[in-house]
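Quick illustration, no need to memorize.
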Amino acid sequence: MIPFVKMQGNGNDFIVLDNRDVRFSSDDLFSMARTYCRRRSSLGADGILVVENSQEADFTMRLFNADGSEGEMCGNGARCIARYAFEKKIAGNEQSFSTLAGIMKAVVTPPFVDLDMGTVPLSSGWFNRPLSVGARSFDTSFLVVGVPHLVLFLEEDALTREETIETGRELCHTYALFPNGTNVNFVVPNDDTHIASVTYERGVEDLTDSCGTGSTASAIAWVLRNAAIPSEAVVEVKNPGGVNFVTLCFDPSGESVAASLKGRALMVAEGALFEN
């Protein structure tokens, strides 16, 4: 049997495993993600989070999406693993951990985790560019927040759920534009500091209830869509599963922005998976 904790961050749900004893290889984790993340036929989750040892931080976070692919980073996943590490006494309330996207820092004050998303480069992406999908044209931005995100701005109820999934899937796999694929965020603005965002997640291949890196990307794109680059901004991002608070501090040169993400990270259940 395999001990696990089930966690969720605003509805983005994960199976969390401790692999500091290197019980499981990467191939094992690939297979486990594909097996245990299947909904209805197994435990079900958007992905598996794995705690491993690190020589440069408190621990290493690895993320295996539901399709088995290993992701560079996940904002909600990072908040969940930080809460897990705190509760399991792997790290304190102020902690750092290694990811494929670099070292992340978090402050845990249960049930909230405030995650330092680091510095997001702006010069390598694009902003306010029209992009056509079939007969529809969208105002879009593209940037990398640990992982790639395409942000589409919509009028409220512009797309049905089925149309959103179809559009997200097509854009996610438009490799001519996005050689590594991309997450796709659909954003409906409310006012200058409040937006709604839903994400079609690469690797999950479906809409998810929340996405931390997607919330961050959506907030950055929204701020830059509507004003000259400010020094600071705080954006409340409403996901289907809950609210993420994104704080942004823009570099005066306009080439980058320091971002932090705050939201709930909840432990749902603890138990054992049966090996199969």
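The mean pLDDT is 93.
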